[in-house]
Amino acid sequence: MAGYLTGIMLLTVLFAMSIRHMGTIGSDYNNLMNDSWRQLDALQTMNSAMMEVRLSLPEKPAQAQVALARVEYTLQHYLTLKKGSLPDDLVVLVAELYNFRQKVLEELAGGIAPADLNRSFLSLSGRLRFEVERARGKTQVAEASYLERINQLLLLNIILAPLSFLFLYYYGFMLTNITGLRLRRFVANLQMINNGRTNVRIKDDSRDELGQIAAGVNQLAEKIEKGYNTPL
User: Fold this and answer.
1) Is residue 57 a contact partner of residue 104, using CB atoms and an 8 Å limit?
2) What is the rounded radius of gyration, in angstroms, for the C-alpha atoms of the chain?
3) pTM confidence score
4) CB 107 within 8 A of CB 135
5) Spans of all domains in the chain
6) What is the pLDDT of residues 164-177, one digit of tens each?
């Protein structure tokens, strides 16, 4: 019985660990996706603010300066979100953004040709599109990895469930057969003792209830045997 309960406890622990691991995977995935979407949102905000800067020049210089400040703020926010996972080529984005910023300031001061500003704008716009696509690619990779890990856990549980049933069924079957065999021997020996063969002993050294009963019957048979052999 102890082994049976141990098997049930072991299987319960395995299922609990599997469910807990699934919850951990889900939590990690949610955190990763939240970070990825915040980074993607920052890039798209930066891109829209940069386009607003270009569209505001030269007719709306005040609006262009506000939009430029939003570009710089969003860049700082994006770098904060990327802390610990900055790619080496991200310095190109920063360099191109500050080059664009310098061209905008020169445009506001009236000291730059529109063609130079357009070239800087197109270069930065291309870099931002690259970063957006990279962020989307990482998001898709994270989704695929999450689905793969969840499918692996589900497959493990699907395999574990019938194996658990077979294990418990087999263990219960063996336990029933062993207990039945012990009972049959117990009854046979008890009948022999009842028929006067007081020298017969029940061979059962287990410490469970049946073993304790067998020990008591053996002690009783021993006392009866001594009583029969004692002269009057």
Assistant:
1) yes
2) 40
3) 0.56
4) no
5) 2-164, 175-229
6) 767 666 666 676 77
